[in-house]
## 1
Amino acid sequence: MLRYFLARLATFVPTFLGVTLISFAFIRVLPGDPIIVMAGERGLSEERYQALRDQYGFNDPLLVQFWNYLTGVMQGDLGQSFVTKKPVWDEFFALFPATLELSICAIIIAILLGLPAGVIAAVYRGKLFDRALMSTALVGYSMPIFWWALLLIIVFSGNLGWTPVSGRIDLLYYFDNVTGFMLIDSALSGQDGAFWSAIRHLILPSIVLATIPLAVIARQTRSAMLEVLSEDYIRTARAKGLPPARVNGLHALRNAMIPVITVIGLSVGTLLAGAILTETIFSWPGIGKWMVDSIFRRDYPVVQGGLLLIAVLVMLVNLTVDLLYGLINPKIRKR
């Protein structure tokens, strides 16, 4: 198992360097000068403009800029925001709990609904229930997030008034931000209605963010289950008179979980990408909205550092998925 872990860990180095290069190049291909953006309507004299470019290293050759950025990253220094003058590390981890809370709720919804839907669709293959579930999953996967989010806001926030439009909690509640997770902090605050307010603010963003992963998990579970249900040992289990729930839920689903786990792991990238639109639409103060605002402001350190940290998180999740493969199926460790 140790050799298997080290082999997977070795892929981190080239991937990390590639992401570093991409994050460095991405912001620089966008139009706009960060110095002019920072100056705003005040404008700058030519002397002050050149002085600021020298201060931030923009007059250096791109290779020198990249080398300085890479050496800083290797030392754990992602730089400071041009706008807030705060370290990128501090801003990221101050906002990350909001995104993590939203992503956890979304993936829980996707798993709790997607797995049973896929299993039931496979068991009733070709029947009306199977076709209805898979058609719904296809619609959910194809639906643009921004359109789906606006539709839910119009119906449940505008017409019915059941859920708030934006934010994480009503403004009338104020308490210490202990963990960064609003559900936990509101429950610890002891204020009447604070926890329910946090839940109401979380419902729509979680549903929107969970839609695509839910559809993917449901379809992948169905495909994996159909393949496993045709195996000889499943027919043997049925011939022995085992209950259908035991055959489908234990023997079949367990062996169908490897591709499903792959999809769940890959959904982390989908969640972080979807969080950018979801957080922007719902004014959710997480890293997605933070990244969008930083791109518009041409805040180079924030965009570079944010992309790099998000990529590292996805890489860690993929490594965890690979390790789960080895635990579920020991044959994989020998490959």
## 2
Amino acid sequence: MKQKENKKSAVKIVLDQLAGIFCPVINYITAASILKCLLFLLAGCNLISRETGFYKVFNAASEGFFYFLPFFLAINISRLWKTDLFLTLFIPAAMLFPELNAILENSSESISFLGIPVQNAIYHSSVIPVIFASGLLYFVEKPCDRFIPEVIRGFLKPILCLLVVLPFTFLVFGPVGTWIGNGITRLFLAIYTWNPIVSGVFMGALIQPMVSVGAHWSLVPIAMNNLSVIGYDIIFPLFAGAVYAQSGAALACALKFRDPLKKKNAFQSAFTAFLGVTEPALYTVNLPLMKPFICAVIGGGIGGAITGFAGTRCYSFAFPSVVTCLAYAGPGFGLFMFSMAVGFISGFGLTMAVCRKNLED
């Protein structure tokens, strides 16, 4: 019994750490999401052109925040785990260095590192690689501080730390999301050819767990290829219910929290998820509490079944949300919108039912 309690507390510690990493950037993720949505609406209604300097500058600000998210997370990790800030920033700097990034994110190119082929992976907007690598840095940095003489520590410690951390980053931590995502994608495509409704349940339930480990980026090249080759994509519509199930679950948590800061963060996370960005709700509310996350996963499966049945299609690259819904206008559009509502209600209702007491109790 005691061993079981220790395991539970270990899991809770990990989830609390994830919340601590993301909480400081919630407001900025919300701001970037709102800015991105406003630009999409203005351009979609032909009020501004995507070719204007105004659009390009503010689009760079909103998209840039998410693209360089590993840097922002590295700063939070350094503060939380008391690692050297500039040394921690070496990790996302290497991950997002343009020349290397262009190779690693291009499936037609490859490189080897220490004689070992490096798996192609998406590093921009990623979460898992920078967290795992920074965690390893924490354990490597401690003996360096202890055993390296102070007179040479300033330049020798960064070299030794990077010699250990960077190989793991590019050979193990980076490809993790790609390995998981590729396996799930192959299974999804096999299920879709057999039964679109079952595949909708499958992908609707799994997409947010995939987001939590950065594996969802493996689906993007497939969706983009579908758009360019056949003119539409059938994967993205299945995510709609899952997005709004996370929003509904976070809103339920906001109503259950008594702590003012937790309540505020949960409301902001629910709003951000409503705009289509679920990471704040995932990492700061639903996943650390686990039960709301499971409720949202169930809601996502229900919503995915609806869009799978409807055969909804996506006609331009846009993750599903109320502000990007015009990209899904076509056959099955009504049920696509309905799946958002069902996902939201399911996530909210199940969380309210499962978490009957105040969440601090």
